[in-house]
Amino acid sequence: MKVNRWPTTKVGPPRSSMAWAVAIAWWLCGASVPAQDAAPQDAAPQEVGVARLPPLDFSQPPVLPQVDGPRPAELESAIERGVDFLIADQNANGSWGSATNTKDLNIFAPVPGAHHAFRTATTALCLSALLEVADEDPQAQAAIELGEAWLVDQLPRLRRATGTAIYNVWGHAYAIQALLRLRQYGPEDAERRKVLDELIRSQFDMLTRFESVDGGWGYYDFRYQARRPTSDSISFVNGAVLIAFAEARQAGLEPPEAVTERAIAATVRQQRPDFAYLYGEYLKDRPMRGINRPGGSLGRSQCCNAALRMWGKTNITDNVLKHWLYRLYERNGWLDIGRKRPIPHESWFQVAGYFYYFGHYYAGYCIELLPEEDRPPYQAMVARLILDKQEKNGCWWDYPLYDYHQQYGTAMALMTLKRCRPQ
User: Fold this and answer.
1) Which of 14, 183, 232, 275 could disulfide-pair with 19, CB 3.0 to 4.6 Å?
2) DSSP letter string over 107-126?
3) 3-state SS class at 277
4) 220 DSSP β-pair partners
5) What does DSSP assign to residue 50?
6) DSSP 351-401
7) What is the pLDDT of residues 351-368, one digit of tens each?
8) Mean pLDDT in the chain?
9) What is the pLDDT of residue 53?
10) Of 344, 369, 345, 356, whose CA–CA distance to 419 is shortest?
11) Other CB atoms closer than 10 Å to residue 249's CB: what's the count?
């Protein structure tokens, strides 16, 4: 059987950033799966090499192993080190991240718009993290105020980078969450609250403008680069935006109803019976590709399940959340093998490194959706996974992305640990 694979180091990857982006899209859309992931078409829908685990039974909660969670002092020490890293790494202008620290192979990022999107999303995440775990720390307070000033000034300038690159959707989504947290921070100030509310509504408008023609959002448009993106939606982008929308609604700021309903429908269309989710709707005819199977969905299912649950989908039961939280712990190796690899989707099940802290961050949301008395074993599992990955300088990172990865990874890890704190 002929299997298409990524170029070897002897040949070298495409040097053009555009060629690299097209290669990724081509590979995900039409190339054969990696040899180690190949399986007969009539194989059971289980990950290769882990058939020893029984099929999921969502009528019952999972049987959990005994996992010793971190001591409170250990957890707080890790959070403190992460906060110290973010404070020390903040740019002088108040933002986090930059286009420096490149590698031989860089993700497609047309300048300057792509980097404005990366920096905006990264800054929003870092602000949210400091607001969630360190808002009473004087040094963190200074960083928050500087970051708020940058975000309020720069966010109105965030746009689509090119007809193809729509990374700005990440900036709009995570900015909504940061702005919502900023509304609760500091002394009551009616004028400041008005500015933040107007910015949140402007992000609703931008996400409406860049909604895919079929509902939801993607971050590439390789079809027609039309004014309204013609790409299929991507499940985990939908999930991230829908969670931001749900938080806004809870705060009394209603997101656009029709846009929200279309995004929910697009995400539901990408849901498999086992609550794995397609990478994107363009793979709807290839549900058994590695990237769409449970091992490939480990970093997406948490986000999509939490989003649909927050928008009232009753099939996302407590047991669904529990089974996928346990699966994230039990099969974490599938994500971890891809962690820190410089080429996206080169690992088993076509996992990309950038799913690692993304998946655990939204696992924290799933934990919060459970009854309080059911949370401790899942908090112990997820906290242990995160603590064991902290770097010597206090940061966390999963995928080398210019100079944004340590910052967004640390922010997501901190917010994950916050949701793992014992009550």
Assistant:
1) 14
2) ----TTHHHHHHHHHHHHHH
3) strand
4) 165
5) -
6) --TTHHHHHHHHHHHHHHHS-GGG-HHHHHHHHHHHHTT--TTS---SS--
7) 999 999 999 999 999 999
8) 89
9) 55
10) 369
11) 14
